[in-house]
Design a protein that fits this description.
Elements lengths: L32 E9 L4 E9 L8 E5 L2 E8 L7 E2 L5 E3 L2 E6 L5 E9 L17 E2 L4 E3 L8 E4 L4 E2 L2 E11 L3 E4 L5 E2 L2 E11 L2 E4 L3 E3 L4 E3 L5 H22 L8 E5 L4 H7 L4 E4 L2 E5 L3 H9 L1 H16 L14 H21 L1 H16 L19 H19 L1 H13 L6 H10 L4 H12 L8
Parallel strand pairs: 1-13, 19-20, 20-22
Antiparallel strand pairs: 1-2, 2-8, 3-7, 3-11, 4-8, 5-7, 6-7, 9-10, 10-17, 11-12, 13-16, 14-15, 14-17, 18-19, 21-22
Helix pairs in contact: 1-3, 1-4, 1-5, 3-4, 4-5, 5-6, 5-7, 6-7, 7-8, 7-10, 8-9
Length: 458
């Protein structure tokens, strides 16, 4: 998932296809396992970790990354033997993290580390973003982007293994509840969390309330019953649409997390919002009430919230059940979720709402002064920015649906879910042919909509 996708789409302010065949998600590729313990204190900003990482990709067993504010005490292997490492002097850096190089690749590493971070109880920091290990005086927030846990690192591809299964003990002095992404929140200052499904590991420890319904969990804020019901109802409607379309029940339900950002005083003064999604967590600055209010108000404001929630819920399919890789990573991850969100918007808010949204995407693409990479020619080095992920590629998927029909498009989306990530255009075409899209129709779409990166179909 895009680590910093805004609450509303980055590029803009019908009926469901009938069920065809039951699609099954791809088998989970072997993923890292993170185990051990972490201790933190929200009154001092201190963090201590004794964490092991195993089952990393073969090309990432000689390196790991850790937040630059954390100091490594020692590294040992799975048998308890000390392991030499470099990373102190003239270190490599990957965003928020320092890159450590082991003396030799090993299958299991255990890292002991400690660090301390500034407190902002007045919420008067100059800025805040997803990569910070954030202490605001009464809560702590660490996301996978912040590398608060050791992450395997491929130095050639410069890719972190940011998703992991986990079995972690967390102790947080000053916390009334603890939450680890993908597990139920635990009341209290201590808890053990386990997940057999690979997740981007986010930790939040706070002092606020917890509300649970069958559809949603709301952390760190109390909402009136009517507003909880509005969120729950919307989530259930989206789950129904996605489950019918993809042929696989949507098991994950979102956790809405209220976070008071480090610079909340400035955001409140400006009336701005900031949020991010680390599925199944949807984190929002200030107040979740704003989302519920929009849903209750109706109109275009409600439509935007429906589309956003539907996009993030689409990541249960593309991002959780199917974890994209390769040159089509961003298209499979974000554009597929955006396509599903448009289907949900049409099913929940109606044709006019979906048509307005699609028109906004097309208008944004039409304003571009430089051509976008052609979909049939992208490779691992292609720059697929936000406009490509959230506007152009979803429009391409819609254009394919228009040419081949809703039933075959639905079969194609289910085929993408059930397949390993295609590495090139012929492999993508093979998935389309298996879904019932004939070669002539596929080539016509390629020639009229795809080749050359044209902004719209001719």
């Amino acid at each position: 998932m895009n680590p910093c996708k805004a609450l509303l789409p980055a590029v803009v302010a019908a009926l469901l296809a009938p069920a065809i065949s039951q699609a099954a998600p791809t088998a989970q590729v072997a993923t890292p396992l993170t185990t051990g313990s972490v201790r933190l204190d929200i009154a001092t900003g201190r963090v201590e970790g004794d964490v092991c990482l195993s089952n990393s990709p073969a090309n990432a067993q000689g390196h790991f990354v850790l937040n630059a504010g954390l100091n490594v005490a020692q590294v040992i292997d799975g048998e308890g033997k000390p392991v030499g490492f470099d990373g102190w002097y003239a270190p490599g850096v990957d965003g928020e993290a320092r890159v450590y190089t082991l003396a030799e690749p090993i299958a299991k590493i255990c890292v002991q580390y400690v660090g301390a971070f500034p407190l902002y109880p007045k919420h008067d920091a100059l800025g805040d973003f997803k990569g910070m290990m954030a202490f605001n005086g009464d809560s702590a927030r660490f996301t996978e982007q912040s590398a608060w846990l050791p992450q395997a690192f491929d130095p050639k591809a410069r890719v972190r293994s940011s998703q992991s299964r986990y079995d972690l003990q967390v102790d947080c002095a000053g916390c009334r509840f603890l939450y680890l992404n993908g597990s139920p929140a635990i009341e209290g200052a201590q808890g053990r969390f386990r997940s057999d499904t690979a997740r981007p590991i986010l930790l939040f420890g706070g002092s606020g309330p917890t509300t649970r319904t069958a559809q949603v969990t709301i952390l760190n804020e109390t909402l009136p019953t009517a507003k909880v019901d509005a969120l729950s109802s919307t989530v259930q409607k989206v789950a129904d649409v996605h489950s019918r379309y993809m042929g696989v029940p949507l098991v994950d339900r979102p956790t809405f997390l209220r976070m008071v950002t480090l610079n909340q005083i400035e955001r409140d003064r400006e009336g701005s919002e900031w949020g991010f999604a680390t599925w199944p967590t949807i984190a929002m600055s200030g107040s979740i009430v704003n989302v519920a209010d929009s849903l209750l108000a109706g109109g275009e404001s409600a439509e935007r919230r429906v589309q956003y929630i539907a996009h993030e819920m689409g990541h249960y399919y593309f991002g959780t059940l199917n974890r994209p890789q390769g040159p089509y990573f961003w298209v499979l991850l974000e554009s597929s979720a955006e396509f599903l969100s448009i289907k949900a918007l049409r099913g929940i808010s109606g044709d006019a709402a979906a048509d307005r949204y699609v028109a906004g995407l097309q208008a944004a693409v039409n304003k571009l002064s430089t051509p976008l990479p052609a979909f049939d020619a992208i490779d691992g080095s292609s720059d697929l920015g936000e406009m490509y992920r959230y506007a152009y590629a979803p429009l391409l998927l819609l254009s394919l649906e228009k040419q081949v029909g809703e039933a075959k498009m639905q079969a194609f989306m289910r085929g993408l879910l059930a397949s390993t990530s295609p590495k090139n255009w012929p492999e993508l075409q093979a998935i389309a042919l298996k879904a019932g899209i004939d070669t002539k129709a596929w080539q016509h779409w390629q020639e009229s909509c795809v080749t050359g990166g044209r902004p719209s179909c001719r």
